[in-house]
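Quick board copy: two proteins, each given as sequence then C-alpha cells.
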Amino acid sequence: MMKSKMKWIAALKIWVVIYPSITFFLYVFGEKLSVLPLYQRTFILTISLVPWIIFAGVPLVDAILRRVNR
C-alpha cells in the first residue's frame, strides 16, 4: 500500500511541473511552432521540457516540499 501512495505522490509532483511548463512553453513558442508538423512540434516540446522536468522542475518541487514539511 505504501508503494502505491509513493507512486501517486511522484505522479502528482511530476504533473505539478509538467502542466505549467507545457502551458508556458506553448504560450511563448506555440504560434511559431504552429507552422511545423505535429511530430516536429512534439519532438521540440519533449526535447526541451524533459530535461527541465527531470533536472530542475521536480528537484525544485522536492526542495519546496522539504521546506514546507519542516
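And the next:
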Amino acid sequence: MITAPQLRAARALLGLDQRQLAELCGLSVPTIQRMEASDGTVRGTVDSLMKLIEALERSGIELISEGQTSGGGGRGVRLKSPPATPEPALP
C-alpha cells in the first residue's frame, strides 16, 4: 500500500497541492487531507485508495515498498532506514 509520507512526497514531486490531487483522482480535499494525516499506512476505503494510487501512477509516480527495488529509471525518493542506535559503552 502507500504510506502518508509517500503520499506527501509523491504530491510534492508532481508539484500538486491537495486540491489538484483531489481533482486528479476524483476524491474530496478533506479525504486527501485525512489520508495525508494518517499515521503510517494511509487509511481509507479500498475504492478511494485505488483511485489515489491509479492517479499517482498515471501521473508518473512509482510507489516503492520497503526493501523493493525500483523497476525503472527516473527520479524518486526513498526514506533510508534510521541508523542503528549505538550501544552505550560499558565502564
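Board note added afterward: The two ends are 46 Å apart (CA to CA).
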